[in-house]
Specification:
The complex is a heterodimer of chains A (about 600) and B (about 375).
Chain A: H1 2-16, H2 32-66, H3 72-80, H4 82-115, E1 116-117, H5 121-129, H6 136-147, H7 152-161, H8 174-198, H9 202-210, H10 215-243, H11 247-253, H12 260-270, H13 274-302, H14 311-314, E2 316-317, H15 321-349, E3 351-355, E4 362-367, H16 370-375, H17 388-419, H18 424-433, H19 441-451, E5 456-458, E6 461-463, H20 471-493, H21 497-505, H22 510-521, H23 523-538, H24 555-563, H25 568-598
Parallel strand pairs in A: 1-2
Antiparallel strand pairs in A: 3-4, 5-6
Helix pairs in contact in A: 2-13, 2-17, 2-19, 3-13, 4-8, 4-10, 4-15, 5-25, 6-15, 8-10, 8-11, 8-23, 9-10, 10-13, 10-20, 12-13, 13-18, 15-25, 17-20, 17-23, 20-23, 21-22, 23-25, 24-25
Chain B: H1 3-18, H2 21-27, E1 47-53, H3 61-71, E2 73-79, H4 83-92, E3 101-106, H5 110-116, E4 119-120, E5 143-155, E6 186-189, H6 195-222, E7 226-228, H7 231-238, E8 248-252, H8 255-261, E9 272-275, E10 282-291, H9 297-308, H10 310-320, E11 323-324, H11 333-338, H12 350-368
Helix pairs in contact in B: 6-12
Classes of the chains: A mainly alpha (about 600), B alpha/beta (about 375).
Chain lengths: ~600, ~375
């Protein structure tokens, strides 16, 4: 404990104490460190300016210009109409509730994954990440197979208690929205908090217990405060995702619920009321910005340099029946909430269903690979057809591009943020980085169309960026970048400044410090960041906003296409392709996990 | 977890994708319709033509190849989202058009496109082959390409009068749906978020009139109609065919034929049927237009002619589940045998739809969802 407090104050002192090679000027002259900070910010800020702020400003400008009663009118309409106020209230309320539930489910899981070694752990980690990439329509199918009126649970209960009607109503309820948000976003908590927790020195807790604290006191007074920065980062990401939720609200929530994002879509696309859609987008952005400012203030207070331990040293084996029992409970909870809907999908993709409408439920008439076989057939000779292998290759190349770009931009930004949390520049920029996450996908998609109207000349070729496949990884990076920054910054901030100072005193250049001290210490967090970028791209967040080229179909695009036509074979094929998407995701996650040993070295 | 497991997963994915790889060679022969000498003496580089459309667009490779060969063109398709989103993108890019041609605006969105002035008029010679009632724009700024009827579908097996259901006859009219025997059997889509949902609302407005449709919907609510946001949820979750509890669903008159074609295992006749009595369906008409400012007006005209030609028109039903506007085009045997076509779908003028859409949807929402 005392050691820890010392570091906290030690950090503050370092910002004022003279360092060997820092020249101190007053007035308007930038210090060398500020030049360094600016150079770190150069690439991430140019990227955001060009691909985020510029298109966003373009569409907002065009939209408000279409309004006949000035710029204030749509805002007044949005804030005074009772139905719009209802939408805003509901959006915030459901996001807060979903975030709390996600933390409740995710934190015990993060503890288990961070502190213990057990068989199948990597597999569990990979499985819990899959929900993140699944298209909502397919997830709805999975939930329906379990909880629908003729889902397994309802049928079982009806059999058990001799009921005539299904006792559980799931679809079109608030519960469905909350459960789906937990399903999608628990992986954020598991990965962000889990990684941080695994490096937390267990001796701090042990010391407290030696001093007489009981288990709960240790948790409340020691562990949770130390984890606070990571928990806050995870909660912020989860909240913003729930806050801007579209598919879940639309498909699982049903017509009685509308989030801001759904309302923006209705106004922009259904009614072509661009001024109101733009006003709602600005309100959505404002909420995100406000929340992020609160978070960044909080994070600076909460984070403290810690003596990190290699995760191999903090992990224990599961010994003792009580511990094993608790672990089994946590694993079971994760499996039920995150994996069972996926399993239901996979099972249905290999089951030939003979639906007998007069009997209750679908009668599986046997196992079949017919849907998988059909995937490689192109009976319609359609232009936009691609075999699954091609779609996998295209999805993976977009994902690889996103990982590379998001890390290249996110690492310097996170590093700049972590090095000097007191600098005014960082305080200003930090909240701005999160904005792309809180932006309506419809709005930004239209922004690309308006903003990139002039074709670029690239290598002597006329390139229309709006229709170029290059825009896909760029757009995915906008979503992945904040994740990369948020998962790296807590890890970088927790590095003790003394380590860097010691290296500097010994004559290491800032680059050497970064390479030899920072990078190895946060290697694991880099992996976490990479997995986020990978899954975000594979899940094609906001892809509906882009223009797709039929000659480059991704897995998600193919799944949607199959699901949009009637016929058992089309339906079956979409489930088969979804199962392939799950396997690709799991394999990709496990492959990224392996990289740490090859490249960065485990700490 | 080690490399072995990753490998296993990759192999599993590969095995699933490739479990029938050998058959691809058999099923995907080079299109036989093309003459063996595909390209006679390579002419100068093909001229590019860009066609912007919605996500549901599909066409046979051989059909496009024939156009490209005839006019020495290279056609690039752009899918820009659902119908409304794609149209918005076309409108917002009208100063720097993304494409030469836009296909897919329908009669519920037509006024928006015309008001924004994104199209150049073009009176194709093939207009002569199109029935007059489909020519929605007298200035030919947009020409009809296809139509599809949004109709009630029902699950035939449910209406055989067995153990769980005693109802032996499906409804025939909109009024029938208010009868007690159809209580709790219907699922519809939300007109605010779904295009078949909007089409069905328009059918009820066309039939009952502006003064009567809300009372009708109140009756449906009393008879326990279920509303969902999208066609997928209605058809693949709530409909009894897919394991739901509702045997009547708002879908297309072509859906039963697709249930036959894409049945698993194969069946002799469709397991579902469409109700096509007078004024129970709404006809969605999709149109094509040349985008203002195209530098390739001549080629764009050729493409519009091509979409109205028999080759393209006859390719549409299987690709997109929509039907030819060209009177000379034939539809396939399965459609001739099993497609029920409404003789008198409900009708509302596009200008009225554009003007009152918001008010109708808001009023509907107040009655049905609140």
């Amino acid at each position: 404990m005392t050691e820890d407090q010392q570091h906290t104050t030690g950090d503050k002192r370092t910002t004022t104490s003279p360092r060997p090679h820092r020249l101190r000027f007053t007035g308007y002259v930038l210090r060398p460190t500020q030049y360094a900070a600016l150079s770190l910010w150069l690439a991430p800020l140019s990227f955001l300016a060009l691909f985020y702020f510029y298109p966003l400003a373009s569409i907002l400008g065009v939209s408000f210009a279409r309004g006949e009663q000035g710029i204030a009118a749509p805002f007044i309409e949005a804030l005074t109409s009772s139905s719009m106020r209802g939408v805003i209230g509901f959006t915030i309320g459901q996001a807060a509730l979903s975030t709390m539930l996600t933390l409740l489910v995710g934190l015990p899981g993060a503890y288990l994954l961070a502190r213990f070694d057990f068989r199948g752990k990597s597999l569990l980690q990979a499985l819990t990440a899959i929900p993140f990439v699944m298209p909502t329509l397919v997830v709805a199918v999975g939930f329906n197979a379990l909880l629908g009126p003729r889902g397994w649970l309802n049928l079982g209960l009806m059999d058990l208690f001799n009921l005539t009607a299904p006792p559980i109503r799931f679809a079109n309820t608030l519960t469905a929205i909350l459960v789906a948000h937990v399903f999608y976003n628990t992986t954020i908590v598991l990965r962000t908090v889990g990684d941080f927790w695994s490096h937390l020195d267990p001796r701090l807790g042990q010391a407290a217990q030696v001093l007489g604290a009981n288990r709960w006191q240790t948790l409340w007074r020691i562990t949770l405060p130390l984890l606070a920065p990571a928990i806050a980062a995870a909660a912020l990401l989860v909240f913003i995702f729930d806050f801007t939720s579209f598919g879940v609200i639309l498909v699982l929530g049903g017509p009685r619920f509308a989030s801001l994002e759904v309302e923006i879509y209705n106004q922009a696309v259904g009614l072509f009321n661009l001024p109101l859609a733009a006003a709602l987008s600005v309100i959505q952005l404002g909420c995100t910005l406000l929340l992020t400012v609160v978070y960044t203030r909080l994070a600076r207070k909460l984070s403290r340099p810690l003596s990190q331990r290699p995760s191999a040293q903090t992990r224990r084996r599961l010994i003792g029946w009580r511990r094993r029992f608790a672990a089994a409970g946590i694993v079971a909870l994760l499996l039920v909430l995150l994996v069972s809907p996926l399993a239901a999908l996979a099972v249905r993709s290999v089951t030939s269903l003979d639906v007998d409408s007069n009997r209750q439920g679908s009668v599986p008439s046997g196992l079949t690979l017919a849907f998988y076989r059909e995937l490689v057939v192109n009976p319609r000779q359609a232009v936009s057809y691609a075999p699954p292998s091609t779609a996998i290759a295209i999805s993976l190349s977009y994902a690889a591009g996103t990982v590379a770009l998001a890390l290249a931009l996110g690492l310097p930004a996170a590093w700049a943020l972590a090095r000097d949390s007191q600098s005014r520049l960082n305080r200003l920029l930090d909240p701005l980085l999160m904005l792309p996450l809180g932006t309506s996908a419809v709005t930004l998609g239209l922004g690309f169309i308006v903003g990139f109207g002039k074709p670029l000349m690239l290598f002597g070729e006329r390139v229309d960026l709006r229709t170029s496949p290059v825009l896909v990884p760029l757009a995915h990076t906008l979503v992945a970048f904040p994740f990369v920054v948020r998962s790296l910054t807590p890890a970088l901030r927790s590095i003790r400044p003394r380590l860097r100072q010691a290296a500097a005193v010994m004559g290491a250049s800032p680059w050497q410090v970064a390479r030899r001290i920072d990078l190895p210490l946060v290697g694991r967090a880099v992996i976490v960041a990479a997995t986020f970028a990978f899954t975000i791209s594979l899940g094609e967040f906001g892809a509906t906003a882009l223009i797709t080229r039929p000659e480059y179909p991704t897995l998600s695009v193919m799944i949607y296409r199959l699901l949009s036509q009637p016929g058992a074979l089309n339906y079956g094929q979409s489930l088969a392709l979804s199962t392939i998407l799950m396997l690709v995701c799991a394999a990709g996650m496990l492959a990224i996990e392996r990289m740490r040993i090859a490249e960065i070295g485990e700490f | 977890m080690n490399q072995k497991h990753i490998l296993t997963l990759f192999l599993l994915a590969l095995a699933l994708t490739a479990c029938a790889q050998p058959t691809t060679a058999v099923v995907q022969p080079s299109p036989t319709s093309l003459p063996p000498t595909v390209t006679p003496a390579p002419t100068p580089t093909p001229r590019p033509l860009t066609v912007m459309t919605h996500d549901s667009f599909a066409v046979s490779e051989s059909v496009v190849a024939a156009f490209e060969a005839q006019y020495n063109a290279k056609v690039q398709f752009l899918k820009a989202g659902d119908t409304g989103t794609a149209l918005n993108k076309a409108i917002l890019s009208k100063d720097a058009p993304l494409a030469d041609v836009f296909y897919g605006v329908d009669n519920t969105f037509l006024s928006r496109a015309l008001d924004e002035g994104i199209f150049e008029p073009y009176a194709s010679p093939l207009v002569a082959d199109i029935p007059a009632y489909l020519l929605l724009d007298s200035q030919f700024r947009a020409l009809p390409v296809d139509y599809a009827d949004v109709c009630l579908n029902y699950d035939k097996a449910y209406f055989t009068g067995t153990v769980t259901s005693t109802v032996t006859a499906p409804p025939q009219t909109l009024e029938d749906l208010l009868l007690p025997e159809y209580k709790g059997l219907l699922v519809v889509e939300n007109p605010a978020t779904s295009s078949p949902g909007l089409a069905f609302l328009l059918a009820t407005i066309g039939h009952f009139g502006e003064e009567g449709y809300l009372d009708y919907w109140q009756g449906l609510v009393d008879n326990e109609v279920t509303v969902v946001n999208d066609w997928n949820t209605a058809y693949y979750t709530e409909f009894t065919r897919s394991g739901g509890t509702r045997p009547i669903v708002v879908s297309y008159n072509s859906s039963p034929v697709f249930e036959l074609i894409y049945a698993d295992p194969p069946v002799d006749e469709p397991p579902t049927a469409a109700i096509v009595s007078d004024e129970t369906c709404f006809r969605q008409i999709e149109l094509v237009g040349i985008l203002k400012g195209t530098p390739r007006r001549d080629l764009a005209e050729k493409w519009v002619d091509f979409m109205l030609s028999i080759a393209f028109q006859e390719d549409m039903p299987l690709q997109m589940a929509v039907f030819p506007v060209n009177k000379k085009a034939q539809i396939g045997d399965q459609f001739i045998q099993f497609l029920a076509v409404p003789q008198m779908p409900a009708f509302i003028r596009p200008a009225d739809i554009a003007e009152k859409r918001q008010a109708w949807i808001e009023d509907w929402t107040d009655v049905v969802l609140r």
